[in-house]
Amino acid sequence: MIADLDYGLLPDESEDHFLGLDQAQLVGTDTLLTTRDNIEAVIEAKAMMCVYGPAGSGKTMSVNSALRHLAPDITHRLELRAGPTPRDIRHGLFQALGLPGEPPARPIEFDTLLKEALAEEFRVLVCDEAQWMKKTGFEFWRHLWDDKRTNIAVIFAGGDGCYKVLRREPMLASRIFIWQEFTRMSKDEVRATIPAFHPVWADVDTALIDAIDKQAAHGSFRNWANITTHILAGMKKLNLAQVDEDLVRWVYSKIGGM
């Protein structure tokens, strides 16, 4: 059975933030700017890159943002789930590239078709949630990239699992042009970023932002988006004009431990 995958071009910018948080802003952090510089270098070199780090640290958001700026019309994105096999990846690429007809039944014929398509023009292929892949999946991508006919750059984005698999295999690791590790925001980064992330935090006391991050958000963009969504709902429900400690405690009652 083919694993569950998402296919296609870059999602709309409104989908970048967790829960589709309205009015959330993409903040030009050092990490975001570094990602853009790294992807620009990978595209220029037609190379492969590995972006890795904990869930909720902004990997997908940063990669998508950079590619919207650098290569919006030539990027094709796959999001992998449930331990994809090379067969799954073949079918994912077939759909992501919009190839006509029915997928070939035999792997050799399928690979030939994909290589011919990937030789027609330069493309950027993004493999998101790459931590689900095993060695055979990464080897398939290497097989495509190594072929002298193909004209591609490949970006792997995922958790520490993809980093560990790639680093264990010298033939794979040696082909990665850039490794970029994402980490959770530091206290100073939270202070600088969150007031710009959403208008609701713009005038909130720094001490309260520090407390929320320490107790619940833990430097995670995704956690902050979740908390912000609850904050907005609470303000509407309780008819509040600003964030205070009572509202924050109300939010904690909704989210439990994070």
Automatic annotation (TrEMBL):
Transmembrane feature ranges: none
Source domain of life: Bacteria
InterPro entries according to UniProt: AAA_22, ExeA_AAA_ATPase_DNA-bind, P-loop_NTPase
Residue ranges constituting the ORC1/DEAH AAA+ ATPase domain according to the UniProt record: 45-166
Protein name per UniProt: ORC1/DEAH AAA+ ATPase domain-containing protein
